[in-house]
Every structure is written in structure tokens, then in C-alpha cells.
Amino acid sequence: MDGRLPSHMLVSALLRRMNDSGGMGMVLAKGDAQGGGILVIAIGPDRTARVLERGLDLDGRTVLIDSTPANDILSYWRRRRARDPDLWVIELDGAAAERFTAETILQH
Description:
Oligomer: single chain
Number of helices: 3
Strand order of the largest sheet: 1-5-2-3-4
Strand content: 25-35%
Shape: globular
Order of helices and strands: HEEEEHEH
Distance between the termini: 13 Å
Largest sheet: 5 strands, mixed
Radius of gyration: 13 Å
Structural class: alpha+beta
């Protein structure tokens, strides 16, 4: 066991933090409760959307990767989800969306 929290708990924490801060968070696609990857669509106050997910750097450390496509985020996450049905896709809309994502996903 690697000590990480199950995916459903991380998703729940992200949604709660976003909603408690006055923003909005919602699940667009539900993945595997225990070990599914989490793809976050973070919408900032300027209405710009970024796609963020947990990954590893060259030294094997957990980092937050910006995998925002050049166009059409909807098509991008649907293609990813078609290849990986265990993938969670959530949308966080608010000023602290990226910060909450980094704090929650990288801490656990």
C-alpha cells in the first residue's frame, strides 16, 4: 500500500473545499473509488480553464501537471475517459481552483 488516500476521498475533499469557498465544484465523470486518476478542469476568475492532473517528475516525485489541450477541453477529457474508464473528471470553478487542486492532490 502506498499511503495515498482513495480517489473518492480526494475528489470529495476538492469539491467540499471549492464549494465552501464560494466557488462551485462538480463531478463530470465518476471513476474508480480507490485508485482512479483525477483530471481537474480548473476555471479561474478570468474564466480561463486549465486541465490539471497528478503525475511524476523525472525524480519520481508527485507533481501537478498542466495537460491543457490547445483547444476543446470537452473533447479532450472525453477521449481520455474513453481510454480510461477509471478516470475521475471534476470541474472546479472559482478563484482558488488551482490552489485547492495543488494542495489537495499533492499533499496526499
